[in-house]
Amino acid sequence: MNTRKVLKIVSGGLIAVATLIEVRSILQPNHHPVVKIPTHNQQQRSVFTWAKTFFERFPKLTKVQADSTFPRDDIKPWDWNWDNKEPQLDSDNRLHVFSWGDKKGSVKGTGSRHLLFIRHGQYHYADSDKDCHLTQLGREQLNFTGARLKQLNLPYSILYYSTMTRAVESTEEIMRHLPDVPVEPTDSLCEGAPFPLEPPLENYKPTEDELDNDGSRIEKAFRTYVHRPSPNQSKDSYEIFVCHANVIRYFVCRALQIPPEAWIRFSLDHGSITWIVIRPNGRVALRWLGNSGHMPPEKISIS
Amino acid sequence: MNTRKVLKIVSGGLIAVATLIEVRSILQPNHHPVVKIPTHNQQQRSVFTWAKTFFERFPKLTKVQADSTFPRDDIKPWDWNWDNKEPQLDSDNRLHVFSWGDKKGSVKGTGSRHLLFIRHGQYHYADSDKDCHLTQLGREQLNFTGARLKQLNLPYSILYYSTMTRAVESTEEIMRHLPDVPVEPTDSLCEGAPFPLEPPLENYKPTEDELDNDGSRIEKAFRTYVHRPSPNQSKDSYEIFVCHANVIRYFVCRALQIPPEAWIRFSLDHGSITWIVIRPNGRVALRWLGNSGHMPPEKISIS
What residue spans of chain B are helical by DSSP H? Predict the structure, then answer.
């Protein structure tokens, strides 16, 4: 018997053992700490159910094992200068120079910006915006949201609101809870078609004109409102934006540097809170998306 | 005067008029419906503040106008077969054939899968997992989450939980509210390093080995649990997963088909609910991320 044959037998044996171990590990119940969960629960999954689940999963598992890792060779680096406010080295390669308006200096901020985006409430659809009033439910939803914002007790510096009727009426409800927060209306946050959507929808196909006009307006609004704090900002700041689902979803994609066409893959409950945090160094985190947990379940709606 | 000169004068005039209109539109207060918001609010922004804001914004606005639209020439199409369960045409080009385990048929499902991912509660960090118990606050957080899941009153079919101590203890708290929901432990949902993170973090640098081992395990878990409903599923189904921040954030990226390295750009409150919906045709929506609105503000924590 030559070396080649020995190797063949040994490797064959190893493959057989590995297969046995794999099959055993699938057949065995998972090892886990003792769970103090009502025991009748564990029993609800009968041997039959277990066997069924096992055989259903088996082809999947074997398939996945041949291709178990998602490719990680094309990672796009985070653009630290995404908001055009990344500090640059000066000509002596020493001081940080901030391209912040006309201001230049070496001060580094220590406060973060917290942007809280509120979707308006449920409304009666009409051809003209002035007739698109909130429903009774829509009023109630924003009443809950106003109460929650008050309860969160954050030092809000301003509330910006879209000038569309449903956003104005939503703002009215919120302001009953936050009478001392300054407000500012802006057309730039009105609803529109921010970007082509992928995957497309059968019943929503924005025209090229809409994409051009709304898209450039909403992108301009993004650049106006979503950026890192000023280098002079030492404390965390909290701003509220009462606006619309498409605007909020597009802002989320742009702020997180994920493909903007993905905005349609997010959905937002009426009156929900979406919270974006921007650190002084330009790092961004999405902390809440569509947070509507402050509403009783029967008051939650999407459309 | 030749034609060239006339054209120059006319176009010069047009540019001047356009500039005037633009400046006017910026100077004018926004047109918006009458807002019934406490009037002292509007007055809080004095003429001085307004002028300051205006002049601060002006350089930004002019800058943005030259480059106002985000590029939309490299949109990556949604992969309808992301979960390897997209129906295929048969050899006669007529019937839909589903590659669903061994099952093949032309039945099209009408029910969606709702996956509710719960992050465990706050815990005491220790070197050994068995010593990583929930804090008193962590127990309270999951008690609120269990109560909320009960209150949502959805027909949960199963609760899967990670076998790490903090997830097991979190599951115990939830199960006090949902005693009739079947539970199933799984090692595959344990915490780990699912994928390289971008932007990187100073204090969390997973090794290549961790990325390989955790990454392939968590990717396998994704393929096991996150996929469209079976073509036989006629009603919406609701499944609960009690696990960990990295796992949930990675699943969100993979399900939404956004770059997996972006998982670090999301952050999740303890005990929060993240809700992914998968339609029968494979369309995916993220409805909630980090929904912790069911907790009193003083009970919310991240780390």
Answer: 3-27, 39-44, 47-65, 136-152, 165-175, 208-225, 245-256
